[in-house]
Amino acid sequence: MASSSSVLILGLAFLCHVAVAGRTCPKPDELPFATVVPLKTVYEPGEQIVYSCQPGYTSRGGMRRFTCPLTGHWPINTLKCIPRVCPFAGLLENGAVRYTTFEYPNTISFSCNPGFYLSGTDSAKCTEDGKWTPPVPVCAPVTCPPPTIPKFATLGTYKPSAGNNSLYRDTAVFQCLPQYAMFGNDTITCTAHGNWTVLPECKEVKCPFPSRPDNGFVNYPAKQVLSYKDKATYGCHDTYVLDGPEVVECNKFGNWSAQPSCKASCKLSVKKATVMYQGEKVKLQDKFKNGMLHGEKVSFFCKNKEKKCSYTEDAECIDGTIEIPKCFKEHSSLAFWKTDASDVKPCETDVQTQS
Ligand SMILES: *[C@@H]1O[C@H](CO)[C@@H](O)[C@H](O)[C@H]1NC(C)=O
Ligand SMILES: *[C@@H]1O[C@H](CO)[C@@H](O)[C@H](O)[C@H]1NC(C)=O
Ligand SMILES: *[C@@H]1O[C@H](CO)[C@@H](O)[C@H](O)[C@H]1NC(C)=O
Ligand SMILES: *[C@@H]1O[C@H](CO)[C@@H](O)[C@H](O)[C@H]1NC(C)=O
After folding, report:
1. Cβ distance 62 to 78 under 8 Å?
2. How far is the CA of 197 from the centre of ligand 3 (A)?
3. Across residues 29-34, what is the average pLDDT?
4. Cross-referenced PROSITE patterns, in alphabetical order (predicted)?
5. Is the CB of 163 under 6 A from ligand 1?
6. CA of 199 to the centre of ligand 2 (A)
7. Domains along the chain with CATH numbers
8. Which ligand has the shortest distance to the CA of 196?
9. Strands 231-236 and 216-219: what pairing?
10. Is the CB of 285 under 6 A from ligand 2?
11. Residue pLDDT, tens place only, 217-226
């Protein structure tokens, strides 16, 4: 009994002391993202304040309501106002999201991979209510409309893969009508911009009538005009040889792929000789009874007198002319005791070219 009354006395004494000293509370501490109501510079003991979090923030921990105590010291405030978090939006199919956090009031931005476009806006903000605004976009595939077909062309390979349209990187291949030549790439590709790469052109091409070669002939289609891909066939008379391909074609530049001519064969001034022809020893007089054709090549044997050995030198028939190597010595058929150069042992290779 005595003790309880003494507590009461103590308490009364305390109250009196405060009332006498007039202890007031100061302006309360500022708390990030919170507001205090009422906000004043001085509070009488017993006055109440309420902290509330600003829009976009939620309270966590501690108390929100405080009464100014007789001590004049606001109690320690452990309240925290933390930002609201918007739904996870870190992934965008066929695209990318740039963000720091998904908290209020941050903004995140979007981009799409090549071949996709943003259907929606390129950024969104986390609102006070914890929602993205405007809503998160999607990356939609880019499509190309059916390609226009160049004049004098047909569409070869083409398969729209998105309904009537094509997707990024799809291709279409054109062909020119017969006798039209293609300029540019026959293949077009659907780009990330939703258009096709540059179309090729098909142009009509004419070639002049080929002229008949001297000592030969040329055949070509009996037509009014000769066009792209038309062919002409060349040939030569008797001992003449065609220099160039037998068949030529009208190319897309309006020219023939080649202009063959007829080249004369060679008469041989040498009566008898053993020569190398295509890797074999042959008798010139037998092998080339009717002369050598243009372009044919033989190797004559020559003697190195000091070293008593033999070496070879080449000779080629070029349009009726063959130059017999100077080192070659033709024996009279009566000089049967002389050894033919082709029967002499060959010189060391590095001596061959000396004469
Ligand atoms: C494709 O085009 C045809 C003819 O224009 C049309 O009838 C059809 O509805 C189109 N299809 C799609 C999937 O757009
Ligand atoms: C033609 O285009 C295709 C695809 O666009 C490409 O792969 C090819 O290299 C091109 N050809 C030429 C000759 O430019
Ligand atoms: C396709 O579109 C892009 C962007 O608009 C443009 O730069 C390009 O020249 C276009 N390509 C063709 C072949 O028209
Ligand atoms: C056609 O060929 C001739 C000779 O080969 C050449 O001079 C001419 O420039 C060529 N013309 C074209 C269009 O290529």
Report:
1. yes
2. 8
3. 94
4. SUSHI (PS50923)
5. yes
6. 12
7. 25-83 (2.10.70.10), 95-141 (2.10.70.10), 144-204 (2.10.70.10), 206-263 (2.10.70.10), 274-333 (2.10.70.10)
8. 3
9. antiparallel
10. no
11. 999 999 999 9
